[in-house]
Amino acid sequence: NAGVMQNPRHLVRRRGQEARLRCSPVKGHSHVYWYRQLPEEGLKFMVYLQKENIIDESGMPKERFSAEFPKEGPSILRIQQVVRGDSAAYFCASSALPRDTEAFFGQGTRLTVV
Amino acid sequence: GQQLNQSPQSMFIQEGEDVSMNCTSSSIFNTWLWYKQDPGEGPVLLIALYKAGELTSNGRLTAQFGITRKDSFLNISASIPSDVGIYFCAGGKDSNYQLIWGAGTKLIIKP
Hints:
- The complex is a heterodimer of chains A (114) and B (111).
- Chain A has 114 residues and is mainly β.
- Helices cover 0% and strands 49% of the residues of chain A.
- Chain A is built from no helices and eleven strands.
- In chain A, the strands form two sheets. In chain A, strands 2, 4, 5, 6, 9, 10 and 11 form a seven-stranded mixed sheet that branches.
- Chain A is globular, with a radius of gyration of 13 Å.
- With 111 residues, chain B is mostly beta strands.
- In chain B, 0% of the residues lie in helices and 52% in strands.
- Chain B has no helices and eleven strands.
- Chain B has strands at 5-7, 10-14, 19-24, 31-37, 44-49, 55-58, 61-65, 71-76, 85-92, 100-101, 105-110.
- Chain B is globular and about 40 Å long.
- The chains are: A mainly beta (114), B mainly beta (111).
């Protein structure tokens, strides 16, 4: 069984460009969670999605950030007009059960804004 | 916002030594989780605790959910080189998926 797959693993963007981060959950999992991790810090919750629905986006900045989890295909975290402060590791986790604490994490996408 | 204080920040130990780290908070949590993160990887769940006072083991790892529900510790016995990494505690409340994470304890094993 493949685990949570995130791509790209590393992404470099210039200020003002768009970043698109992809997450394919574990097969059969319909719940996806996105987290951000700054260097030397723990993870911070951003958004929780079910297929075609955003359940909770309370941790996601209101501007420039959006997330989707379509019926077909991976979940996408989109950051428009990136700024240096967006540089971080972005992790996706998935679970079979709703609101599940014990979700499985992907390897992350490390975004660097130059 | 809510915070978890995780200590120590880093540990330098000899192979074979026992390791102890803990997390404390001013808030009560319903769930305590301990994760390990290797460089360039995502966190991997080690132990999950759901009840105050609960003591759970996973191989050489033992974790406890504090009676006050405001703290938890993780012990690693007889450390080996592959234990190197960053260990995170995370606390959960009613909406458990919104975990609050500690800043991590970096474990380094001296050769």
